[in-house]
Automatic annotation (TrEMBL):
Membrane topology: Multi-pass membrane protein
PROSITE patterns: MFS
Main location: membrane
UniProtKB keywords: Cell membrane, Membrane, Transmembrane, Transmembrane helix, Transport
Name of the protein in question: MFS transporter
TM regions (residue ranges): 20-40, 52-71, 83-102, 108-128, 154-176, 182-202, 255-274, 294-318, 330-348, 354-375, 387-410, 416-437
Organism: Terribacillus saccharophilus
Entry-linked CDD domains: MFS_ExuT_GudP_like (cd17319)
Amino acid sequence: MDKVRENLQNPQMKKTKVRWFIVMMLFLVTSVNYADRATISIAGDALQSDLGLNAVSMGYVFSAFGWAYVIAQIPGGILLDKFGSKLVIGMSILIWSIFTLLQGTIGFFAAGTAIVVLFALRFLVGFAEAPSFPGNSRVVAAWFPSNERGTASAIFNSAQYFALVIFSPLMGWLTYSYGWESVFYVMGAIGIVLALVWLKVIRNPREHPRVNKAEIDYIEAGGGIVDMDQKKEDAGAKEKQSQWPFIKQLLKKRMLIGIYIAQYCITTLTYFFLTWFPVYLVQGRGMSILEAGFIASLPAICGFLGGILGGMFSDFLLRKNLSLTIARKTPIIIGMLLSCSMIICNYVDAEWLVVVIMSLAFFGKGFGALGWAVVSDTSPKQTAGVSGGLFNTFGNIASITTPIIIGYIVNATGSFNGALIFVGANALVAILSYLFIVGKIERVELEAPTK
């Protein structure tokens, strides 16, 4: 604590860059987060064969995560606003990793029981992961000024693609060499170690031993809410206040409704790649699971690059004195237009061309995935966690609907052609929502509820 006081009391010190270490920790956590979501897709073909599941049943298993993830968003946001980002995110990582590891044990159960246990464990993983992205958004809002928030949000959001780049080949190799159970054991163990690291190294802005006053002043001057979690320490002395009046106000804002609709559509693209894409490569394009694991990483590399470039491009527009609305909407619209290109895969046969087209679509999806930057820009200061939870609730309804809808399409048609059209159409709806519903992007001001 003496080091913290010394740093904060010396205004002549050169500005530190601790905020970038914080966002790299968010990047690492989010990489494991998405890898654990994708375990079931990489192991999916072998697991489907062992348990005797058809496409519809597999779709429901894929959706188990989404049901809990959506249900727990607002409670997760309330926990974040009450206990702060560090503790809630750390416990979230630990709990979801334990449930991921336990999925490796379902092979010990009879087929019918195994399906129930698998669904239950996927459900619990979704429940435990619920605070993660609202928590990320809160951390970025606390540690970053507005003109760096797009880049910071893009860095942690692009981890979903990095996760596929790094972990898809690893999980494909584990499945091929040691069986699908090993995927869950290894990823669960990695997450448990990461939870302990997070709890050890993460601090609030004013409490971090390496931060100095120059950096704190810079963050505050740019709109960073550096005291977000310190204020929660005094909450117990105040009368407890219900969050529901604030939630009702948020749900009446046209800007937020448009953002929610668009996020649902963008998340549809995310969950196609997280659930059915490796299965599409195996069953729709005749690849082996080992090939699918490695090939799935190629579009993911493009998605990762797109994610970083989209955030940087948005902040570049902001630094050129363009409005926040233009700076955020432009990359989103460009990215979603590129994502629509996946429909072209229905009309080509060459595997290499399918990979190229999907890589372009994935690049676009990453380039346009600025939803969490928009959340950091628009969330009211007094309910940042709840606002992020509400945004993620609407967006992740797609984590339920997407696997199920695609499962029915594939089961009814025996083809993935309709599935690609369905996913591409969602990208178009996201564009229309930002163009015609969202309007001006600005921070929401809430009225104090009457007693």
